[in-house]
Amino acid sequence: MKTLADIKKVAVLGAGTMGPGIAQMFAMGGYEVTMWTRSEATREKAKETLYKSLETFAEEGLLPKDQIDAVNNKVSFALTVEDAIKGADFIQETIVENKDAKIALFKQVEASVGRDTIIASNTSGLDIFALVPERILPQMMIAHWYAPAQLIPLVEVVKGADTPEEYAKITVDLLEKCGKTAVLMKKFIRGYIANRMQMCINQELFYLLDNGYCTPEDIDKAVKASFIPRAVVLGLCKRADFGGLDMTANNYKNKSYTMPPEVDMPTTLAEHIEKGELGLKTGKGFYDYTGIDKQALLAKRDKQLFEIFKIAKKFMDDPV
Questions:
Q1: DSSP state of 135
Q2: How many helices (H) and strands (E) are present in the chain, helices listed first?
Q3: CA 145 to chain centroid
């Protein structure tokens, strides 16, 4: 049975939104990484994105400046799936979230992958275990990263019913070695943990906006000044412990809160979509980004994420 020490080479299939950041973390963990993408334009953009991100890590003191080129050189690019996974001990798939595309890719993987290679999908909502060829089911995991992959610590891990427990442990240990915070779930559910929590919050967010209770600015100010920073220290379950589970129970008994009614599409969201206001990428969303340097704003966001996750790691390493 493969062990963590046996992992030497990682293949990352997909070089779009998530691929470069994922490849970076494996490379910073000391692994040789081969990336694959079918598009030459995506490949060239991924190379640029990876190098710029390594420079940012060096600026933040998370990577020695004299190690930028060494880490960058650990990442190579293959023109075919077969070449990318040749000799790989761990495969991380991160292509577009499209059922047919993933089915097609995993058929290619099955044709040439070794029988002891661990294969992980980054799917955000598909039951990958129902899509992959039967032959590779005992090798399948889900390792669900969050964007930006190199900045957000969390990776949610799920093993298939036919996958050995040892593969789950190796996957978690590998991710932790590469600086990630890995959470091993007991079984698959669409949305995993964090996305399901966010969808619950979104349901309430749009209920408040659609019914005119507050503005987007009010919501952001309220959550940033209350439970979000508190959650960095206590999380959700420990927060309930500190407040008293009897208090939480009383909230249920007293009907202190009722869920908003389900809707097919929130009115506020639909209005923005109809206007083509899709957020930062179009210049408008809940906020107006007209005339703002988008790259400078993204860089500022990344810098603040670095700072908050440094604090979060400090608290997680020494929890209350």
A1: G
A2: 13, 8
A3: 2
pTM above 0.90, yes or no: yes
- Superfamily the domain 195-317 falls into: N-(1-d-carboxylethyl)-l-norvaline Dehydrogenase; domain 2 (1.10.1040.10)
Write the pLDDT tens digit of every residue in 158-214. Answer: 999 999 999 999 999 999 999 999 999 999 999 999 999 999 999 999 999 999 999
Looking from the CA of 148 toward its CB, the CA atoms found within 13 Å total 19
Q: Which amino acid is at 302?
A: D
Give burial (CB, 10 Å; 0-12/13-18/19+) of 209: buried
Residue ranges per structural domain of the chain: 4-184, 195-317
For 92, 96, 117, 180, 320, the CA distances from 144, given in Å and listed in that order, are 10, 13, 18, 11, 27
Backbone phi, psi, residue 154, to 5°: -70, 135
pLDDT tens track for 262-313: 999 999 999 999 999 999 999 999 999 999 999 999 999 999 999 999 999 9
Q: How confident is the model at residue 1 (pLDDT cuts 50, 70, 90)?
A: low
Determine if residue 14 is left, alpha or beta; phi over 0 gives left, psi from -120 to 50 gives alpha, anything else beta. left
User: Residue 128, exposed/middle/buried by CB under 10 A (0-12, 13-18, 19+)?
Assistant: buried
Question: How many residues would you count in the chain?
Answer: 320
Q: Considering only the top CATH level, what class is 4-184? A: alpha beta
Rounded to whole angstroms, the Cα distance separating 93 from 113 reads: 13
Q: CA separation (Å) from 133 to 60, 126, 151, 158, 320?
A: 43, 15, 32, 18, 45
Distances in Å between the Cα of 206 and the Cα atoms of 8, 65, 155, 219, 269 are 46, 44, 27, 10, 8
